[in-house]
Amino acid sequence: xxxxxxxxxxxIGAGHNGLVTGAYLAKAGKRVVVLERRRIVGGATTTDExxxxxxxxxxxxxxxxxxxxxxxxxxxxxxxxxxxxxxxxFIPGLDGEYLFYRGDxxxxxxxxxxxxxxxxxxxxxxxxxxxxxxxxxxxxLTMTVPDIGSLNPFELRKLLALAAPLRELSEExxxxxxxxxxxxxxxxxxxxxxxxxxxxxxxxxxxxxxxxGPRSPGTAYVLLHHSFGELDGAYRxxxxxxxxxxxxxxxxxxxxxxxxxxxxxxxPVRSILVKDGRAIGVELDTGEKLYARVVASSADPKRTFLKxxxxxxxPQDFVRAIRNFNIEGSSGKVxxxxxxxxxxxxxxxxxxxxxxDVTIGPSMDYIERAYEDAKYGDFSRRPYIDMCMPSALDPTxxxxxxxxxxxxxxxAPYHLKKGTWPERREEFGDTVIDTIEEHIPxxxxxxxxRQVVSPWDMEQDFGLTGGNIFHGELTPNQLLFFxxxxxxxxxxxxxxxxxxxxxxxHPGGGIMGAPGRSAAREILKDMSIWKV
Length: 532
What we know:
Layout: E1 5-12, H1 16-27, E2 32-35, E3 47-51, E4 54-57, H2 68-73, E5 83-86, E6 89-92, E7 98-101, H3 105-113, H4 117-141, H5 153-162, H6 171-182, H7 185-192, H8 196-203, H9 219-225, E8 230-231, E9 234-235, E10 238-241, H10 245-258, E11 262-264, E12 269-275, E13 278-284, E14 289-297, H11 301-307, H12 316-324, E15 331-338, E16 357-360, H13 364-375, E17 384-388, E18 403-410, H14 421-437, H15 443-446, E19 447-453, H16 455-462, E20 498-500, H17 514-530
Parallel strand pairs: 1-2, 1-14, 2-11, 6-16, 14-20
Antiparallel strand pairs: 3-4, 5-10, 6-7, 8-9, 12-13, 13-14, 15-18, 15-19, 16-17, 17-18
């Protein structure tokens, strides 16, 4: 007879998606436990006081894609969730030029007009088209995709319904959507604009977290994927979570607890227990066994199916598909504690340009060359850097008068041709500092502390296979019906009672919460059939 704690559902991983799944199941009255291997909740969505007084957003660092439904249905503001809008974009060049604009249309028009009348006139049309595409795609984010291989009339009706939003688009927009799904970000943006700084700033969204360069086919979709985010109904807007992204995870965890879920930290799962083809619980590293009718994993597909399960419990074609799932990471993080705000050579002094997003990558050719280094097995010698200083707007992040700088780095391949990441981690950090020193000449004088996070560290410390922040590439062959494997894009898995609820499931990565919410919906649907 089995002994051990019993639940209706066990959720593996207290990243934001796992917490969302746990919260929704608890809201439905189920007895739920969410298990986290680390000492704090959040997974990649975490804030950690690495150095006294300095709170680093260690991996994820800005918020926009979190679904409004999740915020509203879990009442996250009541648990401390607050977003501070990030309203500025600053792209410094190396020749004394820079592009800086705030969020309003007139200011953006005037900033771009200094470089190109054509681009200033084209940008509002481009923004409007992206908003239309986002509005078209939005229903897909919260739905369970139909099974395209099924002859079930219900599934066929859902497949037809998938095309219904196309009626909202003009014929020209339908063709434009098809082009976005297949083109490179560089080719697509070249059709719209001529200013290097503007194209570089926009194309960066097409490669973030992706092992592709801006000239790689498929990156135009990744650009669109990062346009889904909205604050107060405005697409392509971003913000800082007050207290760092870990404050969001804490808000979801507290909402889940309020609804009756149990959230356990320092509880790494060793394996998923399977009996007669059905998941019946988990075993922790301590040897403790927990049992439930349902197990939901917010770990990535490779970790879930190839490490927490015995491959022999799965169909071999499914195992082959998961092994082939592209999950190699391409990004690093460098977090700095600063004695004061930095002085940029092209725009010295404190100002609003330090409160928003700063892009170190003055042209698409620059970003493509950074990708070339990684493609052949080394980190970029002059990397693309997405930089922000949340402490400029949120004083809770650093001691008075001091600041933090969070930098997302492309490219840092998981597999290095020479040496290992433990051997070369600090060399990578030095390369990043050398690069920003071209723009901030005295940056080394104000650095108090430095944290360098490689893809290897992301795997070791956060459980992200290959160091991939999205649990798998966001390319068309790994989206919708194909995520994480053909025929298994509906959160269910070949093991009955086992579900995937993290970013490796539809609709993919980013601080979105959509995979967690949709997985909970499907779990509850199945539970009602099983009379659990």
